[in-house]
Amino acid sequence: MRITDARVVVCSPGRNYVTLVVETEDGLTGVGDATLNGRELAVASYLRDHVCPLLVGRDARRIEDTWQYLYRGAYWRRGPVTMTAIAAVDVALWDLLGQVAGMPVHQLLGGAARDGVMVYGHASGTTLDDLSRDVEAHLAQGYKAIRVQAAVPGIDKTYGVPPGDGLLYEPASGEVPQEDVWETTAYLDFAPTLLAHVRAEFGYGLHVLHDVHHRLTPIEAGRLGRALEPYRPFWIEDPTPAEDQAAFRLIRSHTTTPLAVGEVFNSIWDCQQLITERLIDYIRTSVTHAGGITHLRRIFALADLYGVRSGSHGPGDLSPVAMAAALHVDLSIPNFGIQEYMGHRSPAEEVFRTSYSFADGFMHPGEEPGLGVTFDEEAAARYPYAPKYLPVNRRLDGSMHDW
Ligand code: GCO
Ligand code: MG
Questions:
Q1: Does residue 164 register a pLDDT over 90?
Q2: How large is the C-alpha radius of gyration of the chain?
Q3: N or C terminus: fewer CB in 10 A for the chain?
Q4: What keywords tag this UniProt record (predicted)?
Q5: What pLDDT score was predicted for residue 170?
Q6: From 138, 207, 210, 213, the catalytic residue
Q7: How many CB atoms are closer than 10 A to CB 287?
Q8: pLDDT band with cut points at 50, 70 and 90 for residue 353
Q9: How far apart are CA 153 and CA 104, in angstroms?
């Protein structure tokens, strides 16, 4: 099963995506997602210039060996660009193996350990009333778990709140990053009001999640977690920038609110302490940014030993290929927690045809061999890449803050 071609396609059907296409001598095509929001071309070049030429001639069935070859063989290890590139190769090889075996990837991973994958959707509002309407719309679709974000009074633009154009939330724009203003005090005062509102309106029969997006200090995060305890959030996500894993000891010592971290992590080493010291409850690493199916399963296996569950990142800035791969992993692991599902802006569905489905709050990857995603390269060519960046944050005094 020799690899005969590996190529990178950068396209923008609704937003920018980087896709790796791997072909074998039998005429099979496997795909992997290599999208790194705002740094797309760096991964495209890493793949095109340094990885694709090494893939041609290799046996596509040697997934672990290829992973180790690209990881250990690079000498310069880890980091988002390298690990996203390795992930794309890994996912494409699992896709190919499934097609050869005539089985969906989750069968290769040990088979379904559950009937469906509970996903959470995103509800938001520029006012709490708008937020309520969005929560209602999600409940009507069957969602059992909903992330809630609302505009913080006194702050011009709040993370997670779309500008009200009816489209899915998509913060990347422009040739230079948009500059937002962040004010911690206003947010810390507002967040308990937000959660209290949702519980008063909808009760305790749904899972409510909230993303802090790396903006607090450990002691602020401890205070937030404690203030939210009466509203029993499913989790608070990314309370602090998590380079400092030990900081979670401080947060943990102040609150029993469950903690979720990991969307910006690239490897098991980024979360080793968080997991082995039981400082978090959910690990949110994604297939695309944490080294593919092979490495993500290793992270989740470590997490399982310490009672930490999965909660993979699933934003619209990972392609439908990533969503499919995530669902295959989610279905098969013992310690699945929840999966984020943001959906994709049109016309992504023209370029990526998927076999996964959503019903009553649960998703399923489908039973097609491989990942169950068909990538239409002709359609992709109709949507050329244009540079776009995530915003940056400045505090009131003009200094930079985490976004
Ligand atoms: C989430 C995330 C995203 C990120 C985005 C950055 O929880 O879904 O925080 O919305 O901001 O993926 O590219
Ligand atoms: Mg997040």
A1: no
A2: 20
A3: N
A4: Lyase
A5: 87
A6: 213
A7: 33
A8: very high
A9: 47
Residue 38 CA: which ligand 1 atom is closest? Answer: 13
| Exposure on the CB side of residue 378, measured as CA atoms within 13 A | 0
Q: What type of residue sits at position 53?
A: P
Q: What percent of the chain has pLDDT over 70?
A: 100
In this structure, whether the domain defined by 108-367 belongs to CATH 3.20.20.120 is answered with yes
Pocket test for ligand 1, best of 285, 317, 392 (most atoms within 8 A of CB): 317
Distance CA 209, CA 136 (A): 15
Nearest protein Cα to ligand 1, atom 10 = 315
Nearest ligand, CA 159: 1
Residue nearest atom 3 of ligand 1, based on CA coordinates: 315
Q: Is the CB of 340 under 6 A from ligand 1?
A: yes
- In the chain, CATH 3.30.390.10 covers 3-104
Mean pLDDT of the chain: 97
Residue nearest to atom 9 of ligand 1 (CA): 213
pLDDT level of residue 381 (50, 70, 90 thresholds)? very high
DSSP tag of 281: S
Q: Considering only CA atoms, which of 372, 245, 376, 235 is closest in space to residue 309?
A: 235
Whole-number pLDDT of residue 212: 98
Please work out whether the CB of residue 37 comes within 6 Å of at least one atom of ligand 1.
yes
Give residue for tokens 């724009």: 173
- The amino acid present at 238, given as its one-letter code, is D
Where in the sequence of the chain do the CATH 3.20.20.120 domains occur? 108-367
User: Are 323 and 33 within 8 A, CB to CB?
Assistant: no
For the segment 227-254, what is each residue's pLDDT rounded down to a tens digit?
999 999 999 999 999 999 999 999 999 9
